[in-house]
Design a protein that fits this description.
With 125 residues, the chain is an alpha/beta fold. Helix content is 18%, strand content 32%. The chain is built from 2 helices and 8 strands. The mean pLDDT is 88.
Length: 125
Amino acid sequence: MTSFSRNSFQEVFVALSSNQVTKQISFYQNYFCIEPKVNASTYGEFHLPGLKLAIFEPSSAHAAEFSQVSSGPMSLCVEVNDLEAAIAHLTSLGYPPPGDIIHASHGKEIYAYDPDGNRLILHQS
């Protein structure tokens, strides 16, 4: 039996599938104000503090597996210093959050969505 432990992992990251990879890469490039470390026709990769975010176009053989209408239980959580500025930035990119700011026990937050409908939870402590 093989031993499996925390040392068995080399890396863990979030990957978002998209049929509009170029648009998604552009959105995250503009949102995070950084260039992707890898930028190819069917794949983009951003290295952020505490997270690597990959965006990819699934092969036609697997497209149905990734064609969900919403992000379901997955969220990309982004802690920000100034929630109002983050909302203004998303709005300037053409993706204003559809709801109001939520006041939670851990601070305030708002839900927003990228071009494919993946949920972003912007949070300010």
